[in-house]
Amino acid sequence: MGTRKFRPTTPTLRHKSVSDFAEITKKTPEKSLLAVKKQKSGRNAQGKITVRHQGGGNRQKYRIIDFKRNKVDMKAEVIGIEYDPNRSANIALIKYEDGTLSYIIAPKGLKVGATVISAEKADIKVGNCMKMANIPVGTLIHNVEINPNQGAKLVRVAGQSAQLMAKEGKYVHLRLPSGEMRLVLDTCKATIGVIGNEEHENVKLGKAGATRHLGKRPEVRGSAMNPNDHPHGGGEGKAPVGHAGPMTPWGKPALGYKTRAKHKKSNRLITKRRK
Fold this sequence. Notes:
Blueprint: E1 3-5, H1 11-15, E2 17-19, E3 34-36, E4 61-63, E5 76-82, E6 91-96, E7 101-105, E8 115-116, E9 129-131, E10 140-142, E11 144-145, E12 152-154, E13 162-168, E14 171-175, E15 181-185, E16 189-192, H2 208-213, E17 270-272
Antiparallel strand pairs: 1-2, 3-4, 5-6, 5-8, 6-7, 9-16, 10-13, 10-16, 11-12, 13-14, 14-15, 15-17
């Protein structure tokens, strides 16, 4: 897996780089696993913009990913590795022994023809899914559940993995990609391996239009606005923000301001904060 650059025949191509899609083996998605993805453009039910800078973009279909891996003790063969426009990681199409098709996040090293399984106990092999109570300490994992049978919530981004550091009672200690150390119930499932497509972070879009294709609309600097539109606005020429630090459009501190609830129940499960 790597990136591909272009000859600088235009200003766009001078800095543009794309994935070489070396892992991709199947170009067309499985129709039975597609769902409609409605564009909301950052608006709520009243039609008011609640998330700014969203809208437009190419039409996409959502690929239904199996984050629960509930087909226990049934082997599945990898049919193909596909591109997914909804996430940075690639996805793998697998076929179970009973003929059922399913999508999973494609870990690094998973090849077409390989066999994966979800079981109480299984081989420590890339793509296999099991409860963390049965995974050896030190193993790199992804697709981690927070609550049993809820489906994977943590570590689903290209090139990322968590490490199982220790086991203590009914909990396991996980080191997440952010550096956070967290306790998770050992009855929660996780998948073995590191997520593939690790070169995704090196992709450069090269032009503003490529950002619009992703459904991202332009952002305007607060210092370019009027005082009634933004705390940074106003002044003659290029004026400083006029505050102790940068602020959001609604007057909250923009850098270093902690938004996590102070009395959140899961605080007791975090043994070391992220970097």
